[in-house]
Amino acid sequence: PAKGEQLFSEKSPSPRICRLPSRLAWCSIDWNQLHLLHPLGAGGFGSVYKAIYCGATVAVKQVKKCSKNRLASRQSFWAELNVAHLHHHNVVHVIAASTCAPSSQDTLGTIIMEYVGNSTLHHIIYGSGCTSTERKDDVLGRGHVFFNLAQAVRYSCDIVAGLVFLHSQLIVHLDLKPANIFITEHNVCKIGDFGCSQKLEDAESSRLQLCQQGGTYTHRAPELLKGERITPKADIYSFAITL
């Protein structure tokens, strides 16, 4: 869509019908309040846009219908909503979501999240991956940077705080890496991109949950690569690699 264009026209078929589970009904999207501005990036399962929703700047992720692996696309969408009800200073907040879309949109679902800028820990460490559009929003405006100890400790504490909170809610991220850690304009780390996450319903059932494929091999815990059961320890391993 062009800059400032409404995401869906008012003639779109039943855009307000909520198809989310009742526990997520509170976060259904008011489509008339959503306007895309410009793309921020794209990944294996969809695209992310900067947008305006109800007068506030937000990020919008559209999960595409992947013809080669539609099941994986669907799992990615629902995994993102594992944190839909959570609020924490170091976790990207989900504002609204919907599985509804007009036939013209090749998406399985749309998720609206708080806008945290487009600078990640990966950009700061390696100085790569930013397009010219992204750099306009990168208030840190840095290429390759060598951290001083104080900054490294501050970022590490932010990530740990986010992980401790997620694990207290029985949620494991399963794809923690620099590219999924966003740096806000206030220099705060927020964990995002929960497309590989899983919710461990309780300590007993978590013993039975086996690893699903996905994530990034360079940061993935060995037990997950072996197909063993999922525990919060997998995120701790990924954090150690990131550190």
UniProtKB/TrEMBL annotation:
ATP binds at K61. The keyword Transferase applies. Signal peptide: none annotated. Its EC number is 2.7.11.1. Keywords: ATP-binding, Kinase, Nucleotide-binding, Serine/threonine-protein kinase, Transferase. It holds the Pfam family Pkinase. Residues 34-243 form the Protein kinase domain. It is an enzyme of class 2 (transferase). It comes from the Eukaryota. GO terms for molecular function: ATP binding; protein serine/threonine kinase activity. The keyword Nucleotide-binding applies. It catalyses: L-seryl-[protein] + ATP = O-phospho-L-seryl-[protein] + ADP + H(+); L-threonyl-[protein] + ATP = O-phospho-L-threonyl-[protein] + ADP + H(+). PANTHER family: SERINE/THREONINE-PROTEIN KINASE TNNI3K-RELATED, V-MOS MOLONEY MURINE SARCOMA VIRAL ONCO HOMOLOG. Belongs to the protein kinase superfamily. This is non-specific serine/threonine protein kinase. The lineage of its organism: Eukaryota, Metazoa, Chordata, Craniata, Vertebrata.
